[in-house]
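All the exercises in this workshop are built on plain-text protein records. There is nothing in a record beyond a sequence line and a structure line. A learned vocabulary of local backbone shapes supplies the integers on the structure line. The question running through the whole workshop is how a given chain folds. Here is such a record, shown just as it appears in the course material:

***
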Amino acid sequence: MDATHAESVTSIFLMLAALVSVARLGGYLAGRIGQPAVLGELLAGILVGPSLLGIVDPNSDTIHLLAEFGVVILLFQIGLHTNLASLLKVGPAAATIGAVGVTLPFIVGYWIASLLGVPMMAAIVCGAAMTATSIGVSARLLGDLGALKSREGQTVLGAAVLDDVAGLVILAVVATMAAGGDVSGAGIARTTGIAVGFLVVALVIGSLLAPRIFNLIDRIPLRGSTGTFALAFALLLAALADLAGSALIVGAFAAGLSLHHTPQRQEIEEFTGQLGHFFVPLFFASVGAAVQVGAMFDPDALGLGIALLVAGIATKFVAGYAAFWVPIRHAVVGAAMVPRGEVGLIFARMGLATMVLTPQHFGALMLMVIGTTFVSPPWLSWLLGGPRQPGPIGGRQPREESDSETLEDLVSGDVE
């Protein structure tokens, strides 16, 4: 091994050690004060990024590749925990809230950004980043407060799933436009058709074949085979989605949906969850490392960020009242829809990577994502009358049981 290559590998190892360590510590500290781990991981990334300590280079191709792997695992986990059939029970209300919760933030976000002089493509990314509610953060908050299985909780989860599906489609369209694709009505319709079509085809074919294939894989007398092949399946569909002109995460999400009903789901969840505890915080921290603190507090960026934050809170809260005919606590639904979390970060990172967003625009979106995620825990606790208290060191925070604890822990953290 030559000296140049050795130095390169060494620097990457040092950056990974720093990034993952501070991300986990930041996530733990955030959990201790009743906040989702994603906030601590983001702030930890900012700390070790070029703006402050300068330990991590967010432009490293290797760091970027490993962070993308973390996104694939995260979206695969979201797909694994999405039971489309069970959500039909709250279908009309969830569909209405989800539709308004995507459309209203997108329009208002785009309008505000345009009004403040942001170029068209960057304004579209700003609007798109405001569309999707964080399933992991919302599920964890509602579970902690004992409301995950309530009608409000199920409505929020249903609407958040629809938000994410719509967000993935929007991401595929925006990514194509950002890469110089056709921005005409026909071009946008074609890209949307490809994204939706791939998701539907992959889900139908995967749901038919996956159970049979994984029953055969389950017979391989080698520990970890099921989880390994499941991850390979997610990577394969992610690559096929990209080749089809859609987005990597659309394929990963479709892979998780396809495996939701397989008997091996719990084993797959545990396997990918263990990997996720390394790679998902790495993604969030790498996004934080890309933030230029000086640019984020530039007066124009600060003004845009505050405006997007206020709009992000208001539009999702209003969306909670969209299904006005349903006898639920609409304020609870609206407040639980506010966190943007992981999907908003994926949009922002894509915009920065394609140079559609300037560092100032990216910093403004970071303020929106951090602010919307930060405000929800105390707001929901007040609405539900159950203030959340940090658990003792060495003990677990009491919370409602659910079938999505691995996903919640990856995004929101759990103080052991």
Summary: Confidence is low (pLDDT under 50) at residues 3-7, 387-404.
